[in-house]
């Protein structure tokens, strides 16, 4: 369970962040608060928080960061959410100079950039190997899909898409998420995404990806993606006990 503190006055935007986070294989517990006074009243929880996500009326006011550091949130990263109306070159230059935040993102209608940054700051995006079994796994760092003794080399976009699918498993990945995570600043459409899925399916010797009508794609429902052999071995032992 990953504990987050989210300071966001906009309830709808906060709900969308929480929904985006809860559609991954990692479990998040989000303490959503609406104003600065609530931040102060929750200081007893700071030592359990893995990431502070703050939408501040005045991003240059460092008192909240100092308060977090002095009350248990010693090493947890801080992600600053910036309202579009506040954005300026001068603000970014000053924020860079004071260097108080681990990452900054501009609040937009799309939720994917925020969720992506949360993944990275919580080290969720940093998983490199995803196991289906001991001999079948996806090696993100080396862009390889290993199937028994066969090594299948993947292209950059194929690798990014497969990683996104693994991270989100057992939930589905939307077309918007693929557009942001895989294509980033490139223009794309559903046809391009379908073509990329087709390439991956053709390369892999296992039926790994299934379509979710009107939504996107997901790792096949009967497969469990694990991020370590220890996790895989634990799963096998649990199954053996259950079978006994």
Q: Can you describe this structure?
A:
- The chain is of the alpha/beta class.
- The chain has 2 domains: 2-121, 3-Layer(aba) Sandwich (Rossmann fold), CATH 3.40.50.2300; 129-219, Orthogonal Bundle (Arc Repressor Mutant, subunit A).
- The protein is built from 9 helices and 12 strands.
- Helix 6 (156-168) packs across helix 7 (175-183) and helix 6 (156-168) crosses helix 8.
- The protein is elongated, with a radius of gyration of 20 Å.
- The chain has helices at residues 11-21, 36-41, 63-70, 89-98, 112-121, 156-168, 175-183, 190-203, 229-243; strands at 2-7, 28-33, 51-55, 78-82, 103-106, 129-131, 136-139, 144-147, 150-153, 173-174, 209-212, 216-219.
- It starts with a strand and ends with a helix.
- 39% of the residues lie in helices and 21% in strands.
- Residues 235-244 have low confidence and may be disordered.
- The chain has a 5-stranded parallel β-sheet with strand order 2-1-3-4-5. A 4-stranded antiparallel β-sheet has the order 6-7-8-9, with helices on one face.
